[in-house]
Fold this sequence. Notes:
By secondary structure, the protein is α+β, with helices and mostly antiparallel strands.
Amino acid sequence: MPLFAGRTAGLPYQKHSRTSILAAGRAAGGAETARERVFQVIAEHPEGVTDIEIQEILGMSGDTERPRRIELCGYGRIKAVGPKSVKRSGRRDRVATAWGVA
């Protein structure tokens, strides 16, 4: 059973658009898989890991990884604990750590 089963219904969509609703439904399975992969990387790094590090480890684009990390924060599975390193852009990057991982 997936780690976050039943939580994919929360993907955003435009309520007035049938196309948007259908697209969110089709994306649900892929988002579930991506969310699990992001969580596993975070869980494997108890010292914390940044978005860029997650993206590099998974070979995943930021447009896929960041929303999944934000969802995990919303579910209370991880927390963002503050800046760790300077991004390539010069801005600080937040670190994500997992809650209650054995």
